[in-house]
Amino acid sequence: MISKILIANRGEIACRVIRTAKKMGIKTVAVYSDADANALHVREADEAVNIGPAPSSQSYIVIEKILDAIRKTGADAVHPGYGFLSENAAFAQALETAGVTFVGPPVGAIKAMGDKITSKKLAAEAGVSTVPGHMGLIENADEAAKIAASVGYPVMIKASAGGGGKGMRIAWNDAEAREGFQSSKNEAKSSFGDDRIFIEKFVTQPRHIEIQVLGDKHGTVLYLGERECSIQRRNQKVIEEAPSPFLDEATRKAMGEQAVTLAKAVGYFSAGTVEFIVDGERNFYFLEMNTRLQVEHPVTELVTGIDLVEQMIRVASGEKLSLAQDDVKLNGWAIESRLYAEDPYRNFLPSIGRLTRYRPPVEGPQKNGTIIRNDTGVFEGGEISMYYDPMIAKLCTWAPERIAAIDAMSEALDRFEVEGIGHNLPFLSAVMQNQRFREGNLTTGFIAEEFPEGFSGVEPDTEDARKISAIAALIQHRLQTRASQISGTIGNHRRVVGKDWVVSFAEGDHKLNLQIVDETTAMFEDGTAIPIKTDWLPGQTSALFTAGDAVMAIKVDLSPSTIRLRWRGMDVMARVRSPRVAELARLMPKKLPPDTSKMLLCPMPGVLTTIAVNEGDRVEAGQALATVEAMKMENILRAERSGRISKIAVKTGDSLAVDEVILEFE
Q1: Does domain 335-451 have CATH number 3.30.300.30?
Q2: What is the pLDDT of residues 566-594, one digit of tens each?
Q3: Which residues is 395 bridged to in the sheet?
Q4: Which H or E run includes 213?
Q5: pTM of the prediction?
Q6: Residue 165: predicted pLDDT
Q7: Which residues are catalytic?
């Protein structure tokens, strides 16, 4: 058995591998860049080795630095996690040459399946259904447009060595094909050090469903059910679940058997994933094989009870799998929500900074029979860097049925506290409440179709608005009561706290009276009565509130003028005033925001990689002006209207902050 594993990765996946290794009694070694010196995976490992500067191209994907760390620590095995070097055949070969066990598949399988062009050809030869496309290498943008037109729009432009949504673009015409080719090529080179690109037909109304496979070195290969990964944004998975709400047993079996056939064709062992695109008639087509552990593997573990990391380690040590295909049973339903450091209110742009608050829900079995699991690589007080993937955590829930798992996820998201950076918790909550999602009516276009104008939060309906108003008024009453008790009496009089309140948010006023006897009831003008209960006390940032029949886990943040309440994707800034103060407040003039219409502002923190215009140039609406790279993704900034460039305030290579001026128009 392996005695010491070096994890050639960072963040949550490094912590995930460390957790299983410790359970198995195996020592662990972390590697870290300068930016990750205080990272959680460094703290949790038995040993840690610095491997260089923050950019992954100078640290995490430099093979010789990983080999040097192995030599320093005497590690006899390496787990690559996902991303970075996990599908790099040269890295696996270097480990084999050095006599170090690679906790992953054989070099030949990585070469065959890790290269998406070769894998398509091999899949077709093995009788696996494949998507039409051009599998040859493409030299330039003009050739890309010509090939795309011959395949037939829309097409998917993909990096051959890609993964995780990096180096992928959808093109609907020649212009988008040319631009997408160059962007994909740049992202692929930056993320993987390999800029080869191929093109395939983009199947409309598609579902992204993948099969988890597991094999040993003795010829056994199993499939462990499927994962539905259709909820994606910019080809990056956001929410996954197992099993798929769409597959029937016959399709599951057919997909699983084809995945096993492909794996056996390349002598595969260890954990791996065969990805398919599935249309509305349950026809499925091979997309690619990921010769590594997937980000979303926890949902498979939750429904099968199989620790995939443990199995990978045992397989790498030469052990036979202890189960057969008939032993694999799918029990219940699991959902995974990827918590990203990105601001959904600013078109999901990356966000960096310090986690001033990071408090996930309590993990493990819950009183209602569900399970919560949270895989993470961060901690309260830690920093989110601009150099790496923006994932903060993977929150998972399990329940016997799909709707119960979704409801458990909704409550877990409500209880998850993250402050200091922009994050997508409100968006994840909104998806859990989306009727189409709850019905399982999914495609990879779900987010674009359900949120066509982007995400601006969830507006409370009439019933929720009343509940939130009642809760805000109760909080204000408790705050004022506490203040009156602290201030004491003036003469023989103690300040009396009123019970009539006007709660204002979303341009609306909600007038109510708090009737406090044995319990509290909010009485609204129209006669609606809502009983309220809570154990909230001043200073608490999260608490349970019962409003009517609803039990609500609400995040509470106080400021001198507002009470901020967040629940189920709603973000309410409530002003709670006495009727007289509310009347006077309506007379106050509104402060207008500054005019930035003649400026191009940087929408996210990042590095300016390209300025496509010069001072004095005339530009048209939609024209590319600059490119900012953040968290391994290129973001092209375009002109919103026609005009002339009067000033360029920055230069290529500059690190820019949010809302920093890039250029100005006349």
Answers
A1: no
A2: 999 999 999 999 999 999 988 888 888 88
A3: 337, 374
A4: strand 207-215
A5: 0.84
A6: 67
A7: 288
